[in-house]
Prior knowledge:
single chain; alpha/beta; Four Helix Bundle (Hemerythrin (Met), subunit A); 3 domains; 3-stranded antiparallel β-sheet; 41% helix; globular; binds flavin mononucleotide
Amino acid sequence: MLPPPVRLLRFRQTRVRPGGSCPRIGRPCTGKELGLPVGQPVPFDDDLRVVSGRAIPARPSNDALSGRYSTNATATALGTARADSRQRTLTELQNDESQVAAKADPFGDLNGWRFSVAPMMDWTDRQCRAFHRVLSRRARLYTEMVTTGAVLHGDRVRLLGFDAGEQPVAVQLGGSHPGDLAAAARIAADFGYAEINLNVGCPSDRVQEGRFGACLMREPDLVGACVAAMKAAVSVPVTVKCRLGVDDQDIEAALDAVVGAVVAAGADGLIVHARKAWLKGLSPRENRDVPPLDYGRVARLKAARPDLPIAVNGGIADIASAKARLAEVDGVMMGRAAYTDPALLLAVDPELFGEPAPVADAFAAVEALEPTIAEGLGRGLRLHAYTRHMLGLFNGRPGARAYRRHLATAGMAPEAGLATLREAVAQVSRMEVSRERTSPPQQAA
Ligand SMILES: Cc1cc2nc3c(=O)[nH]c(=O)nc-3n(C[C@H](O)[C@H](O)[C@H](O)COP(=O)(O)O)c2cc1C
């Protein structure tokens, strides 16, 4: 049976797949919901979109997608193993989605919360999240902060719409009116978000004028009331991302007061950006670097609150540092490092979850993302909407600068498409091939 028309509108651009987790119904889809015969095996590429009440195939076949970065010479030079690894497209990754959804229970075993990519305004939009998702199946991804006013009165599909393949995704809300937060949380939960997070850490002037973000560190009772209202409105986990304190607050007392309030309100977890925010005199950017980090304070909080899932954020630059922090807390949240050096996300699944990476390398990641980009271009997005998040992907490799330059020039043209992206990637693969040809054979040890 097909959904009523009003719901179809909301999920018009959402891909759903029999057997996968359906954002509309919030659980695995049997096919019945799409008007398909239940129990019929679904072919490999039978990825579907609900469009005007009909389920239609959404993607070109994998045959058409495979191996495109490999000229014959490159494929030979780089070896068959890598060429094979590039056969995995996002469609194929999404075929694993029901397994991921089963493991994504965020706080059942805390595993789903072990590693996340931070909410970052203007950065972690849905194109960015689709890209990060091809690099790690297990990283929890956060949206940019969305204010309650925008959710309640703005274009919800534009603000909150996301692709089921991005899951697990948490939405971050900004606000301080319990009723508005409850209403916004309910709307976000209906969109299928796996977690609703409240921002108690943003120090910008605009946010302070709205009396939310980091300045709420001074109002623990209000934070508690907000969390209680959100908890009453949704069944998905409700979490808070906060600072150690603001301005001249004592970080022991300030953090304890907020934590006490959110625990009493039933919060499911806390992410602590392990530094204060200085509300006067520092820009938001400076507030991410200048106040000193204090991981010890977060570790002490975890020791005092063993039952509260706690993740730490701030200054975590690589996977080794993430592992070190995981000795003290339940989760790590990485922001700028994950964005500027996204290839490090390839190590998240193997190093932090003991599972294989979804793709073998950065080349394979681009290839896996291609169908999603093709779909976005088909919806009228520019190539740049994706590639602006991908500039750091080949950092440290020969050809990385030429890759970035190509994306920053040809990639900005309105007509830029997948061919432009392939040309940019070829700058790196060409350099790798010529390097392999010129480097002397390795001596056996
Ligand atoms: C461009 C940018 C935008 C950000 N926007 C948000 C936001 O919307 N909500 C939020 O809680 N934090 C935001 N942050 C802060 C990050 O979530 C994170 O707390 C901070 O960058 C420290 O983590 P890191 O050192 O791993 O980057 C933003 C950071 C950056 C760099």
